[in-house]
Request: fold
Amino acid sequence: MNSFIDIRHPERIYETEPLPAWTYLNAELLELEYERVILPSWQFVCHQNQVREAGDFATLDLWRDSIIVMRGKDGVLRAFQNACRHRGARLLDGDGTCKHRITCPYHAWSYQFDGKLAAVPSEKTFPGLDKSQLGLKELELEIFCGLVFVRIAGGGPSIREQWGELAQELAPYRIEEMVPAVGVQISEEWACNWKVALDNYLDNYHVPFGHPGLNRLMDNELACTINRHGISFSKSAIRARESHVWSERMYQRLAPRAFANLPEDVRTTWLFGFMPVNIGFDVFPDSMDIFQILPKGATRCVIRTPLFVRPDVRREARAMQFLANRINAQIGHEDKALCERVQAGLSSYQYQAGPLSEYEMPVKDMHARLRAACPIVTLKERPMDGTLCRLNQQMIEGAQPASSVSAMMPVA
Reply:
């Protein structure tokens, strides 16, 4: 397989070919990716303005895990595993407010807002029970630009460390002031592997042809900026030439004057950012959404796109938000259709992917990170069923001879 050096980061070598097709179809690999890639990464849960008061909570359901973020009576935001310490029952769903305590719907064990176990029905029937040792499992939490992230398997750099100087690109949009949009669908299931959706989000190469409306509206920057942590972003500026589609044309006309309190360049610029391993930031003058890709099966994923808007009731602001939602809904439909077509093609007999463009640099970077976490994906052929996890560990330890790797390949 050929490789090349990224001229912006000479120390980084990228493969010119994407991951093998089998890696987008394999259930055993998904188990490994979940453990080694998803769980150690930061996951978005909610905006800080969704959980302002004591008892306010929001939840996030990952593939096998669920998370609670809750505001304590002391004003502190905390994250917990969404499982009762008694028998593991799911405690809370969606978002809302607990009036007094978190109470398990199974046996009514109850917890304070800081996660401490408060009460156990029929406590005398649990000899020697030490409630101080049975609080909810607390998880790592970080607030970044007003957005609340949680990491289940802790350790590694903070979000601010990852973004570094690139965080300055988000600052003018004042995301921390935004509030949740009302009446917007925020979750949809796509019939594709989570990495298909991931590759698509990272790939600017498809924008001119795959998103004709976006291409009419914006002068899209196909190249991107990327740092050593895999944080990347690209910008798109509103075109001077007006679109023939009314929603796009009206957005072009309104944008320069609708938010006079923002810097002039921000009013006419869309920013698309990415944070490994599955979080996109789509930031607009009027609003922003998180594009979060959550695996649900070998060939299924959930796309979570919570939308946040400026708390601005002016007619121009509402019109901008309406137009942006209309435009972005079409972009979402197009991406879903494209990803599902890719997934169908990947199943073709002995399919081998072609080279990647330099406009797909973030795809190359993310694939390099996946290869480092799960070296099994470097194999061109699918390992024999039942051997994948063991073989991956041997490859990590550097103890797997090539002859043994060949022996574990399925017979054609």
